[in-house]
Each structure stands twice: as C-alpha cells, then as structure tokens.
Amino acid sequence: MGSWFEANLVSVLNGGAIGCLLFILAIGLSLVFGMMNVLNLAHGAVFLAGAFIGWRIGGESPTWGTFALAVGAATLLGLLAGAVLSAMTEPLRNRSHLDQALLTLGIALVAAELLSMTFGNDVRATNAPPGLDGTVPVLGTDYPVYRLFLIAAGLLLAVTAWLVVSRTAAGAVIRATVADREMVSAIGIDDRKVKLAVFAVGSALAAVAGVLGGPVYGARPGLDSTVLILALVVVVIGGLGSVKGALIGALVIGQIESLGRALFAEAASFILFGALAVVLVLRPQGLFGRADMAGAPR
What is the pLDDT of residues 128-148, one digit of tens each? Predict the structure, then answer.
C-alpha cells in the first residue's frame, strides 16, 4: 500500500487540487439548486467567463497585482451575472425544473458564443503568479506550489461556507427560506432578495473558480460544458444544499478524474458516471442531502 501511494502520489495530490477547484465551482451551484430550488445550467458559462477574464487581465504570466485584479473583476462579473440570472428565473419559481433548465441552458449557449466571438477559439493558457509558479518537495516528489494553493483555498472556503450557513444570522435566514419561503415572507423578509444574494454569491464563486482554474485548465470554448457536467455530478453525489456534501463529492470526483485517468485512462469516464449511478440507485438524495430534496420541486 505504501509503495502504491508513493507511486501515485502526484495523481492523488492532483485529485485533491482538482477536487478543491471543483468545490469552489460546485458549492454555488449546490446552494442555488439545493437551497433556492433553481437549476442553473449557466453556471459553467460563468466559470468560462472568469477564466477568460483571468487571461485577458493577467496574460500568460500574471503578476500578483494583475492576478488580484482578475479575481476582483471576476467577482464583480459573477455578482452581476447572478443578479441577472436570479431576476430572469424568478418568473419560473413555481414551474418545473425543466423550464428553468431550458432558460438557463439558452443563456449559457448565448454566453458561450459571445465569449467565443470575443476571445476566439484558441486555448488561452496562463501561468500561476510569482511565488506559486514553482515546485516544492512533497514526500520526496516535486509538486507544483499552485496546486497546493488550490487545495488550501478550497478547504478554507469550505470552512467559511459552513460557518456562514450554519452559524450566522444570514445563514439562518437562508435555511428558513429553504424550509418555508412563504413564512419568511410573512415575517417581513423579502425572500426574493435572499434568492438574489445566494444566486449572486454562487455565481461570483463560479467566476473566481474560472480565474483560479486558468493555470490548470486554461480558457477555451467547450470548457463551460465540461466543468458544468463535473459540477452537476459533484452536487448529485454530495447532496443538494450541503456544504459538506459538496466538498466530499468534489474530492471524490477529483480523485476519480485524476487517478482514473492515470490508472484506467480508457475507462475513466465510465468510472465517473458509474459512481454517479451507484449513488443515485442507493441514495437518490446524495451522500449528505436530505431525503426531501430528492423529489419534485417544492
């Protein structure tokens, strides 16, 4: 076992880095879908927009200043995109998820085409900022510092999100809105503003994830669909509206993506969707989701 771990250490660490990046992307989708009951298929397009912003501002070799500026610009773009998506999906609040999916999918297709027209169809690669672009020894193996940074950022966000949702007044309002939207409105809280805030923060995280994912994935047409599928798998496996579920689901998918492609390259996709199928059969609400979130729209 020890020799196997040493031989596959890089793949395991890559799985952790990919998983934490997926968590930053998927936590917003999980909260919007699980807590606000809105299926947002434009989430991947917001990620891609963030990736292109990171490349446009920082170029192939960003400084810390341009990297921070890209993160700030992506945050603002994500907040705006979330607010627009919240307003556009509000008329569909009492309709099926299919209607929401069709609307947000249409928005995603338009956004992807606009990004392609603006930035072209070439892969836009970018490097990590200075200080994160090197390697450090990990158990005798040199490993990229930036990927360790992604692991730390993902875990820090997980703790922060859990504390906000579980231990703050804002989190209590969000949980109350999930449990009984009409009751929250009756006591004077505008549930539409709660939805808008969750949507905006979720989209902002997706855009920031795009910037952070630049040194890993680059920015290219089609990336939005790839990361959206992975985020949806994470949400389904982890459970809707669960911070812990999103983290565990993302780390599982990260390892399947990394180890699966390293050890079983031809069967990696089958392993990924096989794990999804097993979870859906044995536990439809996901590993940490509530049973009442596995059914029809509330």
Answer: 999 898 899 988 888 999 999
Q: What is the dihedral of CA 208, 227, 147, 251, to 10 degrees?
A: 110
Distance CA 56, CA 52 (A): 6
Report yes or no: 143 and 10 within 8 Å, Cβ to Cβ.
Answer: yes
Structural domain contains residue 243: no
In a domain, 111, yes or no: yes
Query: pTM, whole model, 2 decimals?
Result: 0.90
How many domains does one find in the chain?
Answer: 1
Instruction: Report the C-alpha gap between 245 and 238 in whole angstroms.
Output: 4
Question: How far apart are the C-alpha atoms of 107 and 85, rounded to whole Å?
Answer: 9
Asked whether residue 146 is assigned to any structural domain, the reply reads yes
> By residue range, what is the domain housing residue 229?
34-235
**Model confidence band, residue 295 (pLDDT cutoffs 50, 70, 90):** very low
179 part of a folded domain? yes
How many angstroms separate the CA atoms of 227 and 286, rounded? 19
